[in-house]
Amino acid sequence: MKFIVEHISKGGGRIGRLTGLRSQPSVVHETPLTLISTVGGSAPHLTQDVLHLLVDKDAPLCVPAQHFCDHAKVLQSYKKGVAHFSALQGHSVCVTVQDAGKATPSGYNDKKGVSLWTYGGRRIITTDEYMELVEAMQPDWYEALSDADTDMKSSKKRISKSSTKTLVFLNQCIARHKASQKLKESALFVPLLGGHSEDERTGWSKSLVSGSVDGSTVSGYTMLGLHTNGPKVEKLEPTTIHNLVKASLDPLPHDRPRQAAGMWNPLTVLKLAELGVDIFDSTFPFLVTERRGALTFPFRLNRMRTHAEVSKRDNLEHQNKKLKVSGDGPKAKGEEDISKNNGKQNTNIEDEEHSSPYEISLKDKSNISLTKPLLEGCECYTCKNFTRAYIHHLTIANELLAPVLLMMHNLHHWMGFFSSIREAIKTDHLGDLRALITTATFESNESEGQFYILVDVGNGSAVPGNGANGIHSPGRVSSVCPGHGT
Q1: CA distance 417 to 375
Q2: What is the pLDDT of residues 104-116, one digit of tens each?
């Protein structure tokens, strides 16, 4: 694996080129990038053909080892690796220890190994067993085995034990990696630990570059120990993890990729990208699909428009109204869905508890007669061919087609989001992208299918820009006009 940093943005974030992968020696992957998360080797709810309608046939996959630890002998006999085994040959593969989409119970690891939760229950996997499995999976890069099930509730003693045991596992993995002919072309990523302690994280990262491990074998780093995977990760806000991530990354060399798996919400993804994280996964759109939601947050910055043009076309009276969490469609007639009581919307409490401001809920009855797509202007197969009313019907009827169509839309939206992240970093507009998502997600409503954002261009005047393709001038968000932002 070769990694080159091509551009570092003034506002944070970096553009890199990932090349020389074992299965794709000539393919170039631009970072920040998102891996296609898999369950049992397949993209959730999607067949191979459907997946390739959404992503390139060489898009990297994320395959958790816990899904295959009971099938090591099968993969060893197959001899072609997990990508071929899953009929996704041509894709590069990243192997992680745990599944970021499933909560990892804490406190079950010991000195011998790490607990993996399989379909048959809990299983302790030793370093030798893990490395044998990795050899059989034939990944392009993989995580070293680690005791990383710490989070914000973990004590100092638990964090210390996590670091001590992981250092033993890591040195064993490195020794096995160097001796293995099968892993000669695979890259090893080492974990960044320390729980929610800045001092512990700084100390761990410094130890990695000061000689406690063989640095010649290390190809990259993976951010662990901030959470124990699963849906709770989306609740981790940028302010919570900023200093922790910075403490882990600052001591590291800049010429190696950094990965952070987890169901991060879009704003936290932007914060991680700003701090220098290069590789993510697609467990968040999977989470949204599982609760029958559709991603609708805006991510496209576009060309400038004059203040007069916006004033003529748009009414600013709705700029302080809040976005409905469980859905943004009407309750009965028309497109308005805001009650007269304190300007709040009528939401379904049950759906609100299982939704986020970045999405609409297809369980919501407001969609029962809506003939518009999940997101106006979206080019995915679902939005081009199906209405909200139909997908709502499929959801309520528990039809298997519902999660298929939602996953198609959500993964397409997520891939587009990362394309915008890369474009924003190249043009030093990552802050504007964050402002767009923040203001639109939490303060906007649908009007004429456009989103306008007023930015301070440095001369004391506010100049508006809308939310389609293109980039507006850098500046600070001043106010927002209504619209849905794509």
Answers
A1: 14
A2: 999 999 999 999 9
